[in-house]
């Protein structure tokens, strides 16, 4: 990994480099995605099944696009029992964490007859996209479905690409069943996102689409936003580690590589106050690359988006982290809690040498679907709030409105909205004469 003395110029270069990974910059794919979305919107199942044949190589029809209960039971039987138990323990942690995020409706009444409040309602139906292809991601299944279930969503519709035989990975199906998916469909890519957004003869239209995917999935979510809500436009994974001279360099190197192995666009950055630690971590990374199976992916990721940044002070390290706003932030310092209080921008913060990033990916409970590409400056992790909506409640008695009606009329007339003012005034017609 390249070691750089951080200054304003190199910081600007790194931020520019990272932004090249943003899905919004992949315009060459946008036209293709738009055509797929429009086609599925117009032709429904017919288009969806054609794209499934073309991209996934699976010959499906409307009679078998939905995963059956028999397929789910068969999948569960095929999963190693020990892994099922691990998933159940992970689910318990995820559910307990997200149950603390629940918020309730509230009402505030006053003696003059005013009642104000907020009604919290779960979304009726949400769509969950789960990547397929060569790998299975049961952890993403749990992280998407459980917050929706905790929020009270009644229908959770999952889509995931099938293999060439038209089957869904058994581990993915087992996780979906355990977490509480209502229906599972064999569909992936931009065509599946379009099906969820607009509905087809087989797949129902949803209110919101969540879940990670490749560039085509990300751009399709962007294309349908407004017709439905989405969680975010997810970019490649990233990790930033803040470390001082007390950090274990082997741990830091291992943690950087835990994200670099995702894909060639993943980003791994160490920011440290110690030049000695920087050099040791770089050597540890090279040693790990000799033995870890996905070393070719990691090498390409580190060549393009891997940095070891040396800074003069912990304040500079914190400033760099807040500028980058990483998806995952690890703090390997003598007093990680003190550093944490100064972090403004990060998707998830891991503190101490025994809180490495994969703990959050699989087991601790907080959601691993996090803002990327600097969007942690204004976005939050996926959570229960993503699956609810809020309605304002307003009730005024005649007495309460009587005290305020002249103020409202004056305000409306100042904006030349006379019908607004009249809507209030008619309720008190003749009152002045009686007085």
UniProtKB/TrEMBL annotation:
GO terms for molecular function: histidinol dehydrogenase activity; NAD binding; zinc ion binding. Binds 1 zinc ion per subunit. It is an enzyme of class 1 (oxidoreductase). Catalyzes the sequential NAD-dependent oxidations of L-histidinol to L-histidinaldehyde and then to L-histidine. This is Histidinol dehydrogenase. NCBIfam families: hisD. SUPFAM superfamilies: ALDH-like. Its cofactor is Zn(2+). GO terms for biological process: L-histidine biosynthetic process. Zn(2+) binds at residues 259, 262, 361, 420. The active site is at 327 (proton acceptor), 328 (proton acceptor). Pathway: Amino-acid biosynthesis; L-histidine biosynthesis; L-histidine from 5-phospho-alpha-D-ribose 1-diphosphate: step 9/9. It comes from Clostridium porci. Its EC number is 1.1.1.23. It catalyses: L-histidinol + 2 NAD(+) + H2O = L-histidine + 2 NADH + 3 H(+). HAMAP family: HisD. It comes from the Bacteria. One of its GO terms (cellular component) is cytosol. Belongs to the histidinol dehydrogenase family. Keywords: Amino-acid biosynthesis, Histidine biosynthesis, Metal-binding, NAD, Oxidoreductase, Zinc. NAD(+) binds at residues 129, 191, 214. The keyword Cytoplasm does not apply. Substrate binds at residues 237, 259, 262, 328, 361, 415, 420. It holds the Pfam family Histidinol_dh.
